[in-house]
Amino acid sequence: MSVAYDIGKEAVIPLARAVPAVAAAPRAVPLPARLLESVASFTHHRDIDALDHGLVLSLAELAPARAVLLCKRTVDGRRLEGLVRVACDAQGAFSVRASEADDQDPSWQPVWHCMDQQQSHAGQGADGSHRLYVPVLHEGRALGALQLESDAPLDGARALAEGFARIYANYITLLNESERDKLTGLYNRRSFERHLQRMFRPLAAARRPHERRAPRADDAGVWLAIFDIDHFKRVNDTFGHIYGDEVILLLAQQMRTGFRQGDMLFRFGGEEFVVLLTGHDEAVRGALERFRERVAGFPFPQVGHVTVSVGYALAAVGDYPESVIDRADKALYYAKEHGRNRTYSYEELVARGDLAGEAVNVGSIDLF
């Protein structure tokens, strides 16, 4: 069976590196050997996106299913974070797609039921297909669920799918611990470059060959914003570090609620937070301003009201991550020096002469 990759508009990550060796294995290989090869193949990955693709491809290869879907839950458990689906076409080739989930779609109810009940169950789709739902569990919490689809009952695939779900849960937990901030569950600085790289790929694909230019403020591109809690040291000194940690936790919660599902949220350390988001300058500024106002109006227990200063900058395809961070940092410090609880764009400050501009590195070294 061959493997083909079909990346649609909704795909957000490259799939070529996610191909497990088992995808090319001949059907004549005995099942125990194929099973071991599949497990070794998909757990070889050190990248979460590649691991997700390796899981669904391995299950699609071994189980009698025409499609396998991995649904992942957000850290707070309130939404579906993303979907990875592999399906077999009429020519016997696998096609993998990654996309975002619509939480309001009623067709996801069996998936939510599987996660909430933390039990596998079988069902039928609207098209009459047979479906098997398997929760991905770790330490009593559902991280997500697998959905297998077939034209025939999938009872014989339950043990296989549950076994893969357990292996995946253990492994993804280890990877998450290395990529997420322990206090808030947001992504950490270590994972920043990978996510910036992933958000750039659709823009890089849309550029003309060999095109190199600095970003413009009217571009619909990737923007990096840095938030810093105003007078956070005063919070710790006055109320203690326990309440300081609570402020950080609640701010992370406000970020999850206030930004879109596809926006990437980070805690870089201390009271500094970062968000990667896409759009035009006006829309991005509006989103950041709404978040700043949301925080200013939120009553933090014991502490009362807390504000954040915001600086943001447009990132260019081929730009160095450190350069983007530095530009957003300059806008942030301008906000700090001019009253705090404000939002400033680096490009806007340079355009009106409040900050000195600098050349943007889009050299021949391609980091992305």
Could you explain how this protein is built, in words?
α6 packs across α7 (241-258). The protein has 2 domains: 16-179, Beta-Lactamase (2-Layer Sandwich); 189-351, Reverse transcriptase/Diguanylate cyclase domain (Alpha-Beta Plaits, 2-Layer Sandwich), CATH 3.30.70.270. The protein contains 10 helices and 13 strands. The longest helix is centred in the middle third of the chain and has 22 residues, at 158-179. The strands form 3 sheets. A 6-stranded antiparallel beta sheet has the order 3-2-1-6-5-4, sandwiched between helices. The protein has helices spanning 31-42, 48-62, 109-117, 158-179, 192-206, 232-239, 241-258, 281-296, 321-337, 346-351, and strands at residues 67-73, 80-88, 94-99, 121-124, 130-138, 141-150, 221-229, 264-269, 272-279, 299-300, 304-305, 308-315, 343-345. The chain is 38% helix and 23% strand. It is an alpha+beta fold.
Apparent shape: elongated
Mean of residue pLDDT? 82
Radius of gyration: 23 Å
What is the strand content?
15-25%
Task: Quickly list its features.
alpha+beta; Beta-Lactamase; elongated; Alpha-Beta Plaits; 368 residues; 2 domains; disordered C terminus; five-stranded mixed sheet; disordered N terminus; single chain; 10 helices; six-stranded antiparallel sheet
